[in-house]
Design brief:
Blueprint lengths: L2 H15 L6 E5 L6 H8 L4 E4 L2 H11 L4 E4 L16 E5 L2 H14 L3 E6 L16 H8 L5 E7 L8 H20 L6 E3 L6 H6 L4 E4 L1 H4 L5
Parallel strand pairs: 1-2, 1-8, 2-3, 3-4, 4-5, 5-6, 6-7
Helix pairs in contact: 5-6
The structure holds pyridoxal-5'-phosphate.
């Protein structure tokens, strides 16, 4: 794992950005076997990310070690009842999913910690709430105590330059401001993947979701 280099790059990006935020690496282990989360934990990374509920549950079971598991991929509403072992859901990407998460949090008598996924870039291939709707949705969520909105997540377009990335990440930062203005105790900005995490950290990311740069390219 190229963790030492990644950590150095994050530290340097944080200094360039001058925002002084704490940055947590989430090791994204999707498609890899249980050796990937194991090596991440051995290297001192305590936060693991998966796209799919089922794949994550399988690895949790095999791993038999404590970790904070993050769900980062699109979630179907009929899977919300399986979220109990997860630390944070990054992909609350629609009003209907928010309703389902709230209902589940109320039913289990403990709120679900979530990030509001915002589609800053406006790509139709990606999910997320329209930036223009964030303030209204954040206001609506204030009365829904089955979820606790901890911040905002976004995905930038792939293979684009800084001139495209910066406004996308900056837009996510603004969305977080709207969420905070609505009264949520939200301070997490989940943005940055292997190809763009340095720019994301410069722009204020507190959670970076890294797969390829830690574990190599995924097969398939
Ligand atoms: C797969 C994935 C990542 C990690 O991607 P890499 O480019 O391999 O670092 C991060 N976030 C989400 C939502 C993903 O699906």
């Amino acid at each position: 794992m190229r963790l030492a280099e990644v950590r150095q790059r994050i530290t340097a990006a944080r200094e360039r950005g001058g925002r002084n935020q704490d940055v947590t690496i989430i090791a994204v282990t999707k498609t890899h076997g249980v050796e990937a989360p194991r090596s991440a934990l051995d290297a001192g990374i305590g936060d693991l990310g998966e796209n799919k509920v089922q794949e994550a549950l399988g690895k949790m079971h095999e791993l038999e070690r404590a970790a904070r598991w993050h769900l980062i991929g699109h979630l179907q509403r009929n899977k919300v009842r399986q979220l109990d072992p997860f630390h944070l859901v990054h992909s609350m990407d629609s009003v209907r999913l928010a309703d389902a998460l709230h209902a589940y949090g109320v039913a289990r008598d403990r709120p679900v910690d979530v990030l509001m996924q915002v589609n800053v870039a406006g790509e139709s291939s990606k999910g997320g709430i329209d930036p223009r709707d964030v303030a209204a949705e954040a206001a609506r969520l204030r009365s829904m105590d089955g979820v606790r909105v901890r911040g905002v997540m976004t995905m930038a377009p792939f293979d684009v330059g800084q001139e495209v990335l910066r406004p996308v990440f900056g837009g996510a930062r603004e969305a977080l401001e709207r969420v905070r203005e609505a009264g949520h105790p939200a301070d997490e900005l989940s943005m940055g993947m292997s190809g763009d995490y340095e720019v994301a950290v410069e722009e204020g990311a507190t959670l970076v979701r890294l797969g390829t740069v830690l574990f190599g390219t995924r097969g398939g």
